[in-house]
Design brief:
Blueprint (H helix, E strand, L loop, with lengths): L1 H19 L4 H5 L6 H10 L1 H5 L5 E5 L13 H9 L2 E2 L5 H5 L5 E5 L14 E7 L2 E6 L8 E10 L3 E6 L36 H4 L2 H13 L6 H4 L7 H4 L15 H21 L1
Parallel strand pairs: 1-7
Antiparallel strand pairs: 1-2, 3-4, 4-5, 5-6, 6-7
Family: Belongs to the fasciclin-like AGP family.
Organism: Nicotiana attenuata
Keywords: Cell membrane, Glycoprotein, GPI-anchor, Lipoprotein, Membrane, Proteoglycan, Signal
């Protein structure tokens, strides 16, 4: 009994796996030579494996002649960018034409990565001039990838739409900044380490100022013109003794002394002559 159940169980699991993976994107795109490069990039980035796990999906494929610089991306960046070309729903041309609004927002596979920011996980689709234009929903992104044709579709599992050129989603390389981010505010220093270095005047410590101040107090002032003049210096007359003490008696050997002696002798002789 158990031997007969085992083959049935394996058959059931095989059918379940087949229904879970309803298509192989690599095999499908290999039938369209115009999209061979895009197909190779899906396999190189590893995104093809994740696409094949989906049951309902729409792929925006870029032809070989318009692939641009997608071939020069690293595997990580390439996977992020290509995941924005995969819409998580089924859309063919009739369904696009049935849109009620001229512009709609579609969710792409990058939204499920948990790393999408600023609407990177969404695409804008706009009806324009009888066709449709695709582009990233990020503010300021270019939206000029025009729908060219329906490559293939399998309602309602997979649809491949050909677009004119690659779509550019800003910031998938990690350089995206907020569109309206305010400039950083200057904050006051919270610690001595963050304070600005003191200037030359502020760098002098109080001890140095105190040490210099006595020198400034005892320093002789610059001489003025009055101080340089002779009138401000003591004159010999200020140091001279009184008038009575200015002329001491002449010494005995001086000419004035000799004159007084001669005069005295003359007086004596005159007195003697008068006496006779």
């Amino acid at each position: 009994m158990s031997r007969s159940i085992a083959p049935l169980l394996c058959t059931f699991l095989l059918l379940a796996a087949t229904s879970a993976s309803a298509f192989n994107i690599t095999k499908i795109l290999s039938q369209y030579s115009d999209y061979s490069t895009f197909n190779e990039l899906l396999s190189k980035s590893g995104l093809a494996t994740e696409i094949n796990k989906r049951a309902t999906i729409t792929i925006l494929a870029v032809p070989n002649g318009a692939i641009g610089d997608l071939t020069s991306k690293s595997d990580d960046v390439l996977k992020r960018e290509l995941s924005t070309y995969v819409v998580l729903d089924y859309y063919d041309i009739p369904k696009l034409r049935s849109m009620k609004e001229k512009t709609a927002k579609f969710t792409n596979m990058y939204q499920q990565s948990g790393k999408a920011a600023y609407d990177q996980g969404f695409l804008n689709v706009t009806a324009k001039d009888g066709s449709f234009v695709f582009g990233s929903a990020v503010k300021g992104a270019q939206r000029d990838s025009r729908l060219e044709k329906s490559v293939m579709n399998q309602p309602y599992n997979i649809s491949i739409l050909g677009i004119s050129q690659p779509m550019v989603t800003p910031g998938l390389d990690g350089t995206l900044a907020p569109v309206s981010a305010p400039p950083p505010k200057a904050t006051a220093p919270s610690s001595p380490e963050s304070s600005p270095p003191p200037s030359d005047d502020e760098a002098e410590s109080p001890e140095e100022e105190e040490a210099e101040s006595p020198v400034e107090e005892t320093e002789a002032p610059s001489p003025s013109e009055d101080a340089d003049s002779p009138a401000s210096s003591p004159s010999p007359a200020d140091d001279s003794p009184p008038a009575d003490a200015q002329s001491p008696p002449p010494p005995a050997g001086s000419s004035a002394g000799k004159l007084k002696v001669s005069f005295g002798l003359l007086v004596v002789l005159a007195s003697m002559v008068a006496a006779f």
